[in-house]
Amino acid sequence: MNMSMKKNDPLRLDVSFLVKGAPGTFKEFEFNFPQLTLPGDLLLVDVQGLITVSATEDGVVVNGKIRALTELSCSRCLDPFWHLLNIDFTEVFSSHPVDKAENDLGVQPLPADGSIDLTPIIRDYAALDIPIRLVCKDGCKGLCPTCGVNLNLEDCGHKQEFIDPRLAGLKALLEKDEESQS
Ligand SMILES: [Zn+2]
Ligand SMILES: [Zn+2]
Q: What is the pLDDT of residue 4?
């Protein structure tokens, strides 16, 4: 039984035994990691999932269903919070040379040693499941643009109009510009 998930390379699957198998033969790999760090410093915590690798005529199909938590920061109040990632993917690997047309369809060459590193795949699909603008909760009040306190935690008494903290700097610049024109 050699379905090694090496410690230093936890997302690498040895599927060589399947490549020679009859089409339809499959093998399931259960994933369960307290944490994983993916390229780009993407930290996944409480990673659980199932990877199913099925033999095809000339390679394998890899189906993945992974759930993991990742810590993001709120786009309004900047506080960190946990976001549940749903990483679902299907990737096709061919043991024949992959031409451009196939590649455009998402077919990837199967490495000669029959070992597939899922790291870049999981990284890409995880990144897809991270929305660009996320708030820690519905109705997050954000930071006070005047004094910067987290309005979820305290009321500083300043009059509030919501401003994205990333735009606050721009607003200050525009106001400065207005001042210099007047
Ligand atoms: Zn927030
Ligand atoms: Zn304030």
A: 43
